[in-house]
Amino acid sequence: xxxxxxxxxxxxxxxxxxxxxxxQEGGAGLDVLLPRLFGSPDSRQIDGVGGATSTTSKAVIxxxxxxxxxxxxxxxxxxGIEEAAVDWGSNCGNCSAVVGLYAIEKGWVVPAGDVxxxxxxxxxxxxxxxxxxxxxxxxxxxSPAAEMPGVPFPGHLVGLGFQDPAGKTTGALLPxxxxxxxxxxxxxxxxxxxxxxxxxxxxxxAAELGLDLGRYDSWQAGVEQQLATLExxxxxxxxxxxxxxxxxAAARAIPKVAIVGPPTDADPACDINVMxxxxxxxxxxxxxxxxxxxxxxxxxxxxxLNAMTIDAAGSTLRLRTPAGVIETWSxxxxxxxxxxxxxxxxxxxxxxxxxxxxxxxxVAASLAGATL
Length: 372
Hints:
This protein is of the alpha+beta class. Helix content is 19%, strand content 34%. The protein has helices at 20-23, 30-38, 93-105, 219-224, 227-240, 288-298, 304-308, 363-370, and strands at residues 2-10, 13-19, 58-63, 72-79, 86-87, 115-122, 127-134, 156-163, 181-185, 188-197, 199-205, 256-261, 272-278, 281-282, 316-321, 324-333, 336-354. The protein has an 8-stranded mixed barrel with strand order 1-2-3-4-6-7-8-17. Residues 360-372 have low confidence and may be disordered.
């Protein structure tokens, strides 16, 4: 079997981008096909195209929408590494940044002006994301020059505006109805905030983990010593948020965990310090869908984040991450609230992926189930 695909970087993630009809030619269900394409289960993914990390074992599947007002639909897949499994339960904000760029490069959308707005819809969550792709002089520059924290080389500038993002997965910004909740894990009571915006996120206070608030660079070592407890918190949050019936049934990708703490007085460059976990490990930068949840949590009275950012004013929020400071923004557009962040994106390769025959159920039925 042969599959057309683009290898693209979006933000601090890399993903393989497929058009839905190309995958439908494979004759196997996506839950079978994608792990085989990526080389899973194998910690190296040596016999596939996966990058053997949570930020590089990702796929984006593109659809031409039938509904008016949406330019392109996409489904995100987090492909397991040690497991031959696919998590369809959430979106990836970083990978979302490739969608508008792909549409322009393939001629699906014609650039208009210095900034081309592309309305996209993520099928995992139903989230509308208005993408603002820089097209100076009405086209993509041959040598993109936009830079961002966590990426050593420039790419095309893509702004991602999540339209009215609250409650897209669970139905409510505060799925439990409370701005804070208490979860008992590892023999300790933890005061957390659970927020659904962009993606479901449970926020844990760095101080309760015993992390040094004055030394952000020491957090990772402290977090890695408490991953088992943080996973207990995450699984209990999944049940509290209505994402799983039991802790054992909780998906690997949601809810996400964000460890948050206030900046020191000597660090005026950010409004909050944050370290996010991705698939059970510290994220090298920040999940962009998670940054949307953090932004709305900061604006919501009573959350642990709101208490830390009470002095942060204006339409932006500056988040310190292991890769540097990321700034989110909010704006009104066409009567809706857009909460977003600027990313960069670039096409790395256009290729044909070769694969032996794979048995499985009909791929069209699998894709329909995956798009929720």
